[in-house]
Amino acid sequence: MSSPWNIDQLDRRAFMAALAAVGAGSLLPASAEAQGADFKGRQLLSSGFGGSTMDIIQKAAFDPFDAATGAKSTQVPMQSAAALARMKAEAGNPQIDMYQFSGGQEAQAKSEGLTEPMKSVPNLANVPGGLKDPDGHWVTWAVIAEGIVYNKDKIPTPPTSYKDFFKPEYKGHIAFPAITNGFGMDFLVMLARTFGGGEDNIEPGFAALAKLKNETIFKAASDLPGLFGQGDIWIIPYDTGNAFKTAQSGLPVAFATPQEGSPAVPITSCIAKGAKNADVANGAINYLLKPEAQIAIAQGMRWSASNVNTKLPAELASEIPAVSQLAQLDRAKINANRAAWTERWNREIAR
Amino acid sequence: MTAARPVLDAPGTDGAAASSPRLIPYVPVLLFAPCFIIYAVLFIWPQLSLLATSFVDGNQWSVAHYQRFLGDGYYWELLGRTLFLGVITTVITLVLGLPVAYLLARMQSRWAGFLLVITTFPLLVSAVVRSFGWMVLFFRDGLVSKLVVALGLASPPFQLMYTMSGVVIALAQVLLPLMVLTLYGVFRSIDRDLELAAMSLGARPSLALWLVTLRLARGGILAGSLLVFSLAISTFATPSLVGGARAHVMSTAIYEQTIELLNWPFAAALSSILLVFVLVLALVYGRVLEGRGQTEARP
């Protein structure tokens, strides 16, 4: 915006010097990054969730950011687990500047020293404490509410509890995600909570899941239309966003909040340590936290907002649970047990 | 480039480079070099670092990952299921592919070229897309699953989706064109007159086919089988999409360890074990096929 010189007037040497200065962006004073907002000619590479989700987020946050700052932001489709693996593989020389996670990977990335603290992200102040890292390494910009996705035609009264998965009349029409799918892990934990256990006592979860072991197990959200369409499946533990998406494709599908609580899945962003475009990433994260962006994301995805100043339109607010109403799972404990529970799940449930 | 010039001239002095044992055969070495360098950089080196990774536990060398695999029936089951998938897919594609390839190769019609293109057409569609297609057919209300029930082959709440049988069917369809193409090339190169000669000496057509054509096509059968087998056991998309969590095979286990659990050393160990088994199987299979040919050719 307030660029001191016009690029057209520069000779080549000065241009190269300017480029070098831009390349050393992370060394610039922090204040210049936030409001300076001139990232003309700069590229930002972020991981993204792929498909229509990625397009909605691009339109909600990255496109306005690009328009305002002159940056060019590109999202590379990658599921969260794969993104963390990529982040780890590129440690020390990150090609992707910024990551988006939906499975609690940000905490692991931070503990493995793969992230760097955000700088000058004004909207960070408007995100409640539980939704951001105390050291500023990651921030939640949306929250997914998990619960029960069901076929309205087959189940006319909305399910109310995780116990409904054990109703004999649904037998043979139940599907649940594999444990490697984040929602599958949370289903296990919520079953444990439902039957007297929890993150510290997973036994009741496995015992309950063992009763469902002959039901359909799937791996990816992309199976949902097939399951509800040709699969003759009536009830699945999944989230508001996918329920909405599946319903939009014309299937009679709705979302129900179980009385045991809708687990919250934070959608976070963080910056790869040593990212060449860390300053641009900081700017983009600030845009993801803007109320306008969060409303657009809520409209397109049915994801809850994390910024306390985001006021959803009334008709939207009735469909999307507020973050304060959601159940918080102990992600650190889940991460610590992931390998052991996965191993056990593979043997006891999928076999 | 320039280094090769004096060498190219050199053999001329005494007729052949081979006559002077000290002389390195530069020409073959140079011709071989580009391929070797690419192979070394893109295959041998990564393979060695993969092998090295599989022997790391924490910060020290260890065989713990191999012990974990070898001492656990679950992983043997996984390996067995993977090899079974490879064998059954190879057999199915061979049985279905042999007649098709033979007919296409022997066909005089001007439609032959068109039919060959049709056969290979599925190769133009990515395996992921084809697997998605199968998924629609395999779900409980899908056409194929309903057909299986209607034929009385399974009782009602039945679906091929998320089963090993589904993976085998989808994979056989995905890999069949490769088998047909390989066999087609071989059948084309076998002179039809050999069959006619056998028949003129009294062999029935079926016997001529067996004694002459199939025997000469042995190399193609070996190549096609190895191609299909190695792709079937290493493929990821089809088992992952069609098989889901229940049809866990080595490739999906490697993916799970690498991507979901970030246990790269164990994933490396799984890959190395799979590689060793495939190499051994390929060698034995090649031996059997070639060995049979030699002993039968002698008398």
UniProtKB/TrEMBL annotation, chain A:
Q: Which organism is it from?
A: Chelatococcus asaccharovorans
Instruction: List GO BP terms, alphabetically.
Output: thiamine transport
SUPFAM superfamilies in alphabetical order: Periplasmic binding protein-like II (SSF53850)
Q: Which GO terms describe its cellular component?
A: outer membrane-bounded periplasmic space
Q: Which PANTHER family did the record assign? A: ABC TRANSPORTER SUBSTRATE-BINDING PROTEIN, THIAMINE-BINDING PERIPLASMIC PROTEIN-RELATED
Q: Could you identify this protein by its name?
A: Putative spermidine/putrescine transport system substrate-binding protein
Recorded GO terms, molecular function? Answer: thiamine binding; thiamine pyrophosphate binding
Keyword field: Signal
User: What is the top-level taxon of the source organism?
Assistant: Bacteria
TrEMBL record, chain B:
Pfam family membership, one? BPD_transp_1
What processes in GO biological process is this protein linked to? transmembrane transport
GO cellular component, alphabetical, reads: plasma membrane
Q: Which UniProt keywords apply?
A: Cell membrane, Membrane, Transmembrane, Transmembrane helix, Transport
Question: By its UniProt entry, which InterPro entries does this protein fall under?
Answer: MetI-like, MetI-like_sf
Where is this protein localized, as stated in its record? Answer: Cell membrane
| Transmembrane feature ranges | 23-45, 83-105, 112-139, 159-187, 207-233, 264-285
Q: How does it sit in the membrane?
A: Multi-pass membrane protein
Question: Cross-referenced PANTHER family, in alphabetical order?
Answer: ABC TRANSPORTER PERMEASE PROTEIN, INNER MEMBRANE ABC TRANSPORTER PERMEASE PROTEIN YDCU-RELATED-RELATED
Q: Say which family it is in.
A: Belongs to the binding-protein-dependent transport system permease family. CysTW subfamily.
- The name on file for this protein is Putative spermidine/putrescine transport system permease protein
Native source organism of the sequence: Chelatococcus asaccharovorans
